[in-house]
């Protein structure tokens, strides 16, 4: 595929979709998506994004109460739903991710730096979400990024450890 064809696939022909083909998204495709996006540039290589892929009807039904009404049918009918989250303690991995300056973790450590760590994780996790979309589009997969959901509910349903 030529470079212009890939760019067209990723950008020019990549509008948000509201309906899906019946093609499943395979584990191999998900692994390939991650392999393509994982080293995309983020500030100080912080890579704070965490991805949860919902494939089963049960997993998508669990998400349903957190969705805005206009997004329910589209989400439940998708072959896979990706939740893009971020880890605010990403800096614990910086000595491995940014080895030429392992002291950079100290920029984010401590209570007084929590807001900076949160802002950095949000910004760069969002950027990695965009890399996920570009990798999916490069594989010819349709995408529909959404903001129509209750973030706190998604956190509670999928990101909070059971007590």
Automatic annotation (TrEMBL):
A Pfam family recorded for this sequence: Nitroreductase
Cleavable signal peptide: none
Highest taxon listed in the record's lineage: Bacteria
Gene3D superfamilies associated with the record: NADH Oxidase
SUPFAM superfamilies recorded: FMN-dependent nitroreductase-like
InterPro entries (alphabetical): Nitroreductase, Nitroreductase-like, Nitroreductase_HadB/RutE
Record-given protein name: Malonic semialdehyde reductase RutE
